[in-house]
Amino acid sequence: MGELERSLEAFIQKVLQIQKAKDERHLSKEDMESIAHNLGISRTELRMAEESSLIRGERYLRYQNYEDAIREFEQVLALNPTNAFALYGMASAYRSRWDKNTKAADRTQALHYARLGLEADPSYDPAYRLISDLKDERKRNQAPETPGIRREQFHKRSLLSNFVSVLIILVISIFMGGSYHFFQTLASRPGLEASVAQSSEQITALYSAHGSRGAICWVSSFKREMVNGRLVRSDRASIINPYNGQILGKVLLTDQQDFTYALWDNVKVIGDRIYAYDNTLLDFEARDIYTGQLVENREILSNRFSELRSGIGAVEESGNWFKITTREGKKFLYNPENSSLITEEQKILSQEDLLHKQDWIDTYQWYQNQHEHRKQFYLFKKKSSPYQHSSEFYIPTLYRDNLDFGLNNLYWYGDKVGSSGDQIFLNGIMLYGDQELCLIQHDSEIGPDAYPILSCVSAHGKVLWEKKVSDTFPLGAQLSELGLNPEITRSSGYIMLSNHWRKINDQDFLFGCAIDLKTGDVRWEYSPQLFRQEM
Predict the structure, then answer these.
(1) What is the pLDDT of residue 445?
(2) Does the predicted TM-score (pTM) go above 0.85?
């Protein structure tokens, strides 16, 4: 054991000892830094040790070595108690042990760590599913969603169970004269009103992109209907010029699939392509954002790469990669940003090599203070593995992770390199942030006369511009509520908001726009409902 390994072991033991003495779940950042400093351990060394243990834990978990996986994840959590990947890894390992030996203690631990994981990252869907499965005793023998582990039988049973349940609800709804309300509740988001007839068209999402040929919008919708006594859905998309609202084309994405088929419910835009994926269906496809032409799916990738010639059995989205399993059971990782295909072993070996070379990239993150109303924002920089954060592919979401948890709930967040200065933002919410600037929505004052304001602030604390929300968006001058969870990306000198619901005259509308970062002016804004177009 080298000197660094001994120091890290001493660090972890000291942390656990103090936690036990103070009866605290995790120590403050100051306590952690003090312990590391006294042992001669740098911040970079701590981050590298955390990443190394996380890699080993995930690898042990994949090969069903649950005891060693738990040990490695415990090491990660001693270094960073809010690491959501390690918390979910612990939950998955205990869940798998419970499936194997049915010990109640393992089930309790799995629930405990899954809930802690949701505290660290409330948007992590696998943790919600794991908790739901554990609470349903009938699912005790089903596998959790762990890296590289899937059960086709579980998927088929789940689809059958959902189908039977909805058919029962359908019969009851029709019997009670409530078919109109039934078809309304089938829709996942507000939009077009459902028809009283046996079909309903529902606008579901708006996606904005800026590719090689300029700005473009996709408005997706689906139609559910009864065909020969079977409930099915068809997905469509309209391709829109956002500057004038002109419909450039329409695309039939799926035609009369089983109603549980939800491939186009999960979408990400990469360059000139829009990717749809579903980790339950184990499928994906990509289309050209300007024409709607199919450019990637299982068959296309099988023909492109000789390693996949036997056929693709399953595809799962994983951060900035897609995990691919061939029909022969071989596993690969596909990066759509550069169209590269590697094995899982190649990625792990390369990642471990990077840990020794310290050839990591700088990533940036904004955090807010914990004051109830008076918000300030701080920019931090830290090193990350390029396998975690691709320089272009992952940036739209990288800066918005964990914003609401603030400084006090995260022990490790890198080096402070900027802030919003002395500015105070009442009830401030960050809509977007990168290494240069941030966009903040906040109130003009506290009280019933408050109105929403958008402020663009540089990383050096200078307010670049500030505007009333009602002045910024002329299309919705009657704006009464600005949604807080739009998909936001930056393209050159402006940012785009997509899939952005807002309330106008007590009705919900889907809305997208592009804001000039220099002036705060809107370059374009679009809403399919306000344009009253037939999608």
Answers:
(1) 92
(2) no
